[in-house]
Amino acid sequence: RRSDLLLPHAHALDAAGLAENLGLHDMAHPMEENVDDQHLLLHDQTVIRKGPISMTKNPLSVPCQKELVGAVMNPSEVFCSVPGRLSLLSSTSKYKVTVAEVQRRLSPPECLNASLLGGVLRRAKSKNGGRSLREKLDKIGLNLPAGRRKAAHVTLLTSLVEGEAVHLARDFAYVCEAEFPSKPVAEYLTRPHLGGRNEMAARKNMLLAAQQVCKEFTDLLNQDRTPNGNNRPAPVLESNIQNCLSHFSLITHGFGSQAICAAVSAVQNYIKEALIVIDKSYLNPGDQSPADSSKTLEKMEKHRK
């Protein structure tokens, strides 16, 4: 058991219960297909890749014993199609799971066993289900030993294939952009800081500093090049930071970084609206008391309506 790969704050679920009980249907839109046939080589000493030995360096790879490293044939080939778990019953679209994605699920940091992988792929439970899955994996060059233990805590995200995880992140980003009340929040939080020009100037400097920090943070996350689905982009970051981002992305199957960027984007929209409120108040002649500032904001709101 790889104790250093455990998620400290994850909500653990029962492995057997996850494979049995997670059975909702698909999101409304299928996963976008990519044409890049390259894949991430993540190695684990309990997953044997059959084929010629390849020891090319990869900044996203995980060290392992050399004798267990091999090449999986046809990583872009579709292994199976899986109905999603999060949509309404009226939606029946499926997500394609490639050989490369199966390889990632069997490799660090998750190292899924046959029981969990069968649940993720929505395979019906049967007496010889584990053996059947291992035989199918053997045909694509992956050897999953019986009795293998998972390396990471099981969470709700474990049940999602990469296509649905990315779809969920995109929908979350859309809701954050379209529905988060940036302007009302900005007006409410800025109102107590409009007591005078000095206070407004100090508040504005704080907001500008926060805006810069948020930009630097999202710029970094947007440079994450962890393989996902059938897409294998070339890394642009240094290997040490890319490996850390890849660990998080692989644990969340592409959802994590995109969801964080969406949330930080909502914060950035709040900052923009707060700066607008301060600039409008600062242009008014003379210092304003908090009560006067509140009246000014109310008049501005009525004028917009």
From TrEMBL:
GO BP: any one term: regulation of cell population proliferation
GO MF entries: DNA-binding transcription factor activity, RNA polymerase II-specific; RNA polymerase II transcription regulatory region sequence-specific DNA binding
Domain Transcription factor AP-2 C-terminal: 79-274
Keyword Transcription regulation: yes
Family annotation (InterPro entries): TF_AP2 (IPR004979), TF_AP2_C (IPR013854)
Keywords from the named record: DNA-binding, Nucleus, Transcription, Transcription regulation
Family membership: Belongs to the AP-2 family.
UniProt protein name: AP2C factor
